[in-house]
Automatic annotation (TrEMBL), chain A:
UniProt-listed GO biological process terms: peptide transport; transmembrane transport
Highest classification ranks of the organism: Bacteria, Bacillati, Actinomycetota, Actinomycetes, Streptosporangiales
Family per similarity comment: Belongs to the ABC transporter superfamily.
Organism: Microbispora oryzae
Transmembrane segments: none
Molecular function, one GO term: ATP binding
Name this polypeptide is given: ABC transporter ATP-binding protein
Keyword Glycoprotein: no
Automatic annotation (TrEMBL), chain B:
Self-association and partners: The complex is composed of two ATP-binding proteins (NikD and NikE), two transmembrane proteins (NikB and NikC) and a solute-binding protein (NikA).
Membrane topology label: Peripheral membrane protein
EC number(s) reported in the record: 7.2.2.11
Listed Gene3D superfamilies: P-loop containing nucleotide triphosphate hydrolases
Superkingdom of this protein's organism: Bacteria
Protein name, as recorded: Nickel import system ATP-binding protein NikD
From TrEMBL, chain C:
Membrane topology: Multi-pass membrane protein
GO biological process, one term: transmembrane transport
InterPro entries attached to this UniProt entry: BPD_transp_1_N, MetI-like, MetI-like_sf
Domain of life: Bacteria
The protein, known as: ABC transporter permease
Species per Swiss-Prot/TrEMBL record: Microbispora oryzae
From TrEMBL, chain D:
Gene3D superfamilies: MetI-like (1.10.3720.10)
Protein's name according to its UniProt entry: ABC transporter permease
GO CC terms: plasma membrane
Transmembrane segments: 27-46, 89-113, 133-160, 206-231, 251-273
Subcellular location: Cell membrane
SUPFAM superfamilies, per the entry: MetI-like
Pfam short name (any one): BPD_transp_1
Keywords: Cell membrane, Membrane, Transmembrane, Transmembrane helix, Transport
One example of a Gene Ontology biological process annotation: transmembrane transport
Topology with respect to the bilayer: Multi-pass membrane protein
Species assigned in the record: Microbispora oryzae
Length: 332, 335, 319, 288
């Protein structure tokens, strides 16, 4: 059994902003399944309104799903409370997007890194101090950084502190929500290298949430693509990037700006706006923007179907076209 | 200044000569946010100005628009179709802004007045510079909204900005910016706040419209990928200076400056397979006391004693220019 | 303008529970007086018969909900009961008093807005002197207690210069010029602090708006500075200013109580104070009800104004 | 070694924080320190018994022994002002302290939890805002009867919804920070996160608002006493003094001028302090 995380049928809705007699709801997640293996980095990619951050919060136990289950290492975490919840929390730790906002400005770096050690009462005070220095060393900071305040650090250093704080309790899973999107390219590379190293050296699994397919491709072994509250395609990095099947995945790959001499933008890869998650389209949520659209798309929700054992896609039309062609329609 | 690398003929519409900007900071000190930039933009040409945060690229845009924070000092020349904009009286500058030079800035939600109908904000750009009736301005604004791809522009003219998506708002901003067929458009991170599929739409639209109207674009961005997608030429900025410029094809295929190379290599999208990404060690120098020599020397893997002196600007084989001592040698050997 | 119509209707509907809560609150005042309110009103020497009679007259022996129902039904027909001391019908008394309070507070508010908004704009965009002068006035206006300012104005204009009467009132319908003479000092007294607040709010929200990115974008479009300040920035700043004006109207109504007492103006505020001192509870109740209703109506109007100025407000609650 | 260094740096930071306050805020703080000393040491500072009637000095003009002159009963206005200050500041301090201490937990819980917790805390507090502030105070006095304690309670009641709103807004902003979610994910209970992260980071605006409101509380207290609804004679009170002085305004303006100036100075000092603190403690602009 190598499963670490098993998300099944998770639904999350929020009341739409504003007040009114008939308050409508934002459909953040509408039946999402996701599996992760131990020691693996799983990239979760999508644009705004895709629900990727909400899914991350469900896994962290910070958002309670309306429906569905989140099983972590054999334990259902939805509805978990008290001691059992704390034990799961010790093993699932977050890294947030904004490295400044994720550190208490009044606390020293050392105290922030120590926060989970204090919470779980790990070792003596002296042990914790020693552990903080080890952790800072692990993420490439010097022990003196422990006495500084976040305002005295650069963005990249802050994100290192955020990662050290997440590692403190010895987690099996780190949920990183857009950990590099606030950083410059050259700093981003440092943090991505650090994330890759953690997986390699410590065997920590990472759920890596990002809007940037390039970044996700670099760090992940498995990738899931989300659109308006649903996963449209999931698979191993190799298969998904080499043979994207879902029309949305393909458009997304087309749209990514790649810094290569011949990467000119020749056509608009995907027309139209992303619909509002308050009133999402029926059937396949992508159908209003889709070039492969057939009548059935606006009626039935397409289920995730296997392309290969390690690659699933929620588009029967593309799947059928692919099997008829015999090979994958590789285009880019 | 006849050396232009743009493909679309036409003369240079915007020329910057040795442009420097100093901005006052606390304690009576000054930061040299831009240090001696020379750059040209031709008509119907898109020039990418790329660099990381704090490199001075947005300050440069502000200097061209004449919209820097109070107390800033600008030296050098900003020539718009040969006319120096520096030292222009405020009212004269105002007449040029939005007419000959226009701006599209980063966050479309922040660019539009939240209490005004979007259409009126486009019409305002017209009436600021053309003596036309309200009705005529309105008709032209509706037409512009249609051109930038707002569905049902007549009906949506009166809607306030918050009823539009981010991508649609940026279309409105572009409509207002291009309302008077400007010679130059400064696009400062125009797609950074947008989703990637929407970004592609906006970049496509921007390129389409400006090439058609012959507007020269200075596209300021942190994203080398965006430069590759739409720009003709690129200038790479580091610590207030342009370290390398040339055609996109040349610079991306054969980066000459060590910084350009490092920047390209640290992009995960460019670096397809796993393994560590190359990183640039160290930090950007403090621009209140910039180093006398090459500003990148402290972080450069190929730094040398000579780098303590300002690097010379060398013509590259592909027709671009690079400011680096390394190429001084190659150039001399070639001679 | 479907959006706006729906906004107005929604806001009107939302006022109903507020009025309800307020009326219950004020209704309960007499009933919350510790001990027997009638004993408190009549004094210790009242005969048991008199107490019983007054209790019956005020319906204090009915169930609470029935008392409220009867009272509110009366109020809706303009029947507020009787003055406990003079036995006069309160409806007529209030009809004489309300115009005085309205004149005082509305004139003060208008003066404060007319003076405060332009000064606040100057303070935000003007030079150093404009800023210093207005800041000085704001500090003065905010710090000085209104009733003391009133007394000092009396000392100066009525005592020393004898230009204006120190106190009293003539209805506008009797003698417009005389009315203005009597109301001038009270209005100045009440408007001073108000003006200071409006200057401060205007300056603050103007500076906030002028620092926002869309102002840079307006400059980049070549919009004239005057149009940026008065056309765009002031319009954006107007919603917070209007909100503050609405809230401050409550402060004005409170100030009116003091100022009416000070200048012997026959308004609702003075009526309430006198009635409290006489333990004349029916009058206290009626007076508070009138002032609170005024406040709620003005709040409603400001909310509607804010909604019309800022479409984001009127769109809230709809997609 | 390290601790000493930390302490010194802490002191240095505190000192530089005071130094970084605008000059006006430092002036406000200085005035308040002096006024607080006057209030505490009133019996030592006042040259005369504030209630001692001296028929020889009825409406006597200010002189060296009686710097503010004497009132209609020949009482020393300076001594009365000093003692009235004491009364006034005690009422104000009690009122603002009570309101802040109640508003802090209510606002924090409403802001942090939101949803129904927010509803059951905020809705009843909003009802207090249905009446204009002074009217609310007067209603309470109409029920309970006049007096210093009632005035303090009435002021606390007026300020409670305002302070709770500020604290709610501030706690809401802080609660959206990553470090608050992080604290939960790092294994702390909601209440521990509130204590460790939310309250320390959200307290600033409440302090600013309390400082500003304290100034106006002096005005409200004086207004209530002026109307005869606050502090009752013979206790010296600024509002009562102003009310009494009205009758002798033209003969003895000093009876009127000095207590009024005293009020203005307190309000001014609190305002200067509050505005100065705002820049440091309320960067988000939660206080309106």
């Amino acid at each position: 059994m190598t499963g670490l995380l098993d998300v099944r049928g998770v639904v999350v809705t929020f009341p739409a902003p504003g007040a009114g007699p008939r308050r409508r709801r934002v459909h953040a997640l509408s039946g999402v399944d996701l599996s992760m293996r131990r020691g693996q980095t799983h990239g979760l990619v999508g644009e705004s309104g895709s629900g990727k951050s909400t899914l991350a919060r469900c896994v962290l136990g910070l958002q309670r799903p309306d429906e569905g289950s989140v099983v972590f290492d054999g334990t259902e975490i939805v509805g978990l409370r008290g001691k059992a919840l704390r034990e799961v929390r010790r093993r699932i730790q977050p890294v947030f997007q904004d490295p400044l906002g994720s550190l208490d400005p009044r606390w020293t770096v050392g105290r922030s890194v120590r926060e989970s050690l204090d919470a779980f009462g790990v070792g003596s005070a002296l042990d914790r101090e020693r552990r903080v220095k080890e952790l800072l060393d692990l993420v490439g900071l010097s022990p003196d950084h422990a006495d500084r305040h976040p305002s005295q650090l650069s963005g990249g250093q802050r994100q290192r502190v955020g990662i050290a704080a997440a590692l403190a309790s010895g987690p099996d899973l780190i949920v990183a929500d857009e950990p590099v999107s606030a950083l410059d390219v050259s700093v981003q590379a440092q943090i991505l290298n650090l994330v890759s190293r953690l997986r390699r050296d410590l065997g920590v699994a990472v759920l890596f949430v990002s809007h940037d397919l390039g970044v996700v491709e670099h760090v992940s072994q498995e990738v899931s693509v989300m659109y308006l509250g649903r996963i449209v395609e999931t698979g191993s990095r190799e298969e998904l990037f080499a043979e994207p099947v879902h029309p949305y995945t393909r458009a997304l790959l087309d749209a990514i700006p790649v810094p290569e001499p011949d990467a000119r933008l020749v056509h608009v890869p995907l027309p139209g706006d992303i619909p509002s998650p308050i009133d999402p389209p029926r059937g396949c949520r992508f159908h209003p923007r889709c070039s492969l659209r057939v009548d059935a798309c606006s009626r039935e929700r397409p289920p995730l179907r296997p392309v290969t054992a390690a690659h699933h896609v929620a588009c029967p039309v593309a799947l059928q076209a692919r099997s008829q062609a015999g090979t994958a329609p590789v285009e880019h | 200044m006849s050396e232009r690398a743009g493909r679309n003929g036409g003369g240079a519409v915007l020329e910057l000569h040795d442009l420097s900007v100093r901005i006052p900071v606390s304690g009576g000190r000054w930061v040299e946010a831009v240090g001696g930039v020379t750059l040209t933009v031709g008509s119907a040409e898109i020039v990418g100005l790329v660099g990381e945060s704090g490199c001075g690229k947005s300050t440069l845009g502000g200097a061209i628009m004449g919209l820097l924070p109070g107390g800033s000092r600008v030296a050098g020349e900003v020539l718009l179709r040969g006319q120096d904009l520096r030292g222009l009286a405020e009212e004269d500058y105002r007449r040029i802004r939005g007419d000959d030079i226009a701006l599209v800035s980063q966050d479309p939600s922040a660019s539009l007045d939240p209490t005004f109908p979007v259409g009126a904000q486009v019409a305002e750009a017209i009436r600021n510079h053309r003596d036309v009736s309200r009705r005529a301005a309105r008709e032209r604004a509706v037409e512009l909204l249609r051109v930038v791809g707002i569905p049902d522009p007549g009906a949506r003219y009166a809607d306030p900005p918050h009823r539009f998506s981010g991508g649609m708002k940026q279309r409105v901003v572009i409509a207002a910016a291009l309302a008077n067929d400007p010679a130059v458009l400064i696009a400062d991170e125009p797609t950074t706040a947008l989703d990637v599929t929407i970004q592609a739409q906006i970049l496509h639209l921007l390129r389409d419209l400006t090439v058609r109207s012959g507007t020269g674009v200075l596209l300021i961005t942190h994203d080398l990928g965006v430069v590759a997608q739409v720009c003709d030429r690129v200038a790479v900025m580091y610590a207030g200076q342009v370290v390398e410029q040339g055609t996109v094809r040349e610079v991306f295929a054969h980066p000459s400056h060590p910084y350009t190379r490092a920047l390209l290599e640290s992009q995960p999208a460019a670096h397809h397979r796993s393994g560590d990404l190359p990183v640039i060690p160290g930090r950007v120098p403090d621009l209140s006391e910039p180093p006398a020599g090459c500003r990148f020397a402290a972080r450069c893997p190929r730094a040398h004693d000579r780098c303590a002196a300002p690097p010379p600007e060398i013509r590259t084989a592909g027709g671009g220019r690079v400011s680096c001592w390394l190429h001084h040698d190659t150039a001399r050997e070639a001679r | 303008m479907n959006h706006r119509l729906r906004f107005v209707l929604r806001r009107l509907v939302l006022t109903i529970p507020v009025l309800l809560v307020m009326s219950v609150f004020i209704f309960l005042i007499i009933r919350l007086v510790p001990g027997d309110p009638v004993r408190t009103m009549l004094g210790f020497r009242a005969t048991p018969a008199a107490v019983t009679q007054v209790r019956a007259q005020l319906h204090l022996d009915d169930p609470l909900w029935a008392q409220y129902r009867d009272w509110i039904a009366g109020v809706l027909h303009g029947d507020f009961g009787e003055d406990f001391v003079s036995k006069a019908p309160l409806g007529e008394l209030l009809a004489q008093r309300i115009p005085v309070t309205l004149e005082l507070t509305l004139l003060s508010m208008i003066l404060a807005v007319v003076a405060g908004v332009p000064l606040g704009v100057r303070a935000a965009v003007g030079g150093r002197w404009a800023r210093r002068l207005t800041e000085g006035f704001v500090v003065f206006g905010v710090s000085v207690p209104d009733f003391w300012l009133g007394i000092m104005l009396v000392l100066l204009f009525a005592g020393t210069l004898t230009w204006l009467p120190p106190s009293g009132y003539i209805p506008f319908t009797d003698d417009p010029a005389g009315n203005l003479q009597y109301i001038l000092l009270p209005v100045l007294t009440l408007a001073a602090a108000e003006t200071a607040y409006i200057i401060r709010t205007t300056r603050g929200s103007m500076l906030g708006v002028l620092g926002r990115p869309f102002i840079v974008y307006l400059r980049a479009k070549g919009t004239r500075e005057r149009s940026i300040v008065y056309g765009h920035a002031l319009r954006n700043a107007a919603a917070p200013i209007a909100t503050v004006v609405g809230i401050q109207f409550g402060v004005l109504l409170g100030g009116a109580i003091v100022v009416e007492t000070l200048f012997a103006l026959p308004g609702v505020g003075r009526l309430i104070v006198t009635a409290i001192n006489q333990r004349n509870y029916p009058v206290v109740q009626a007076g508070l009800f009138v002032v609170a209703t005024l406040f709620i109506v003005v709040s409603l109007i400001t909310d509607l104004v804010v909604g019309f100025i800022d479409p984001r407000v009127s769109d809230r609650g709809q997609s | 070694m390290t601790t000493t260094m930390t302490v010194t740096s802490g002191v240095r930071r505190a000192r530089s924080a005071v130094g970084a306050l605008p000059r006006s805020a430092r002036a406000g703080a200085a005035i308040l320190v002096v006024l607080a000393a006057v209030a505490v040491l009133a019996p030592l500072i006042a040259p005369h018994d504030p209630n001692a009637i001296d028929s020889a000095r009825i409406l006597a003009a200010p002189d060296l022994g009686h710097p503010f002159g004497s009132d209609a009963l020949g009482r020393d206005v300076f001594s009365r002002t000093v003692f009235a200050f004491r009364t006034s500041l005690s009422i104000v301090f009690a009122a603002v302290a009570v309101a802040s201490l109640v508003a802090l937990p209510l606002g924090t819980l409403a802001g942090y939890f939101g949803g129904w917790v927010d509803q059951i805390i905020s809705r009843p507090l909003d009802m207090l805002l249905v009446l204009p502030a002074l009217l609310l105070a007067i209603s309470l006095i109409a029920i309970v009867g006049p007096g210093s304690l009632v005035a303090a309670l009435a002021i606390a009641l007026i300020y409670l919804p305002i302070l709770a709103r500020v604290q709610r807004a501030s706690a809401l902003v802080v609660s959206q920070s990553g470090f608050v979610e992080g604290g939960r994910a790092r294994g702390w209970s909601p209440l521990a996160v509130i204590r460790r992260h939310v309250v320390p980071n959200a307290l600033g605006p409440l302090l600013v608002q309390a400082a500003i409101l304290a100034g106006f509380a002096v005005q409200i207290e004086a207004a209530l006493s002026f109307l005869g609804l606050g502090t009752q004679p013979p206790t010296p009170s600024l509002g009562l003094m102003l009310s009494d002085g009205r009758d002798v305004l033209t003969q003895a303006p000093w009876v009127e001028i000095f207590p009024g100036l005293a009020i203005a100075v307190v309000v001014l000092a609190f305002n200067l302090l509050g505005d100065g603190l705002r820049r440091h403690l309320d960067p988000q602009g939660v206080v309106s």
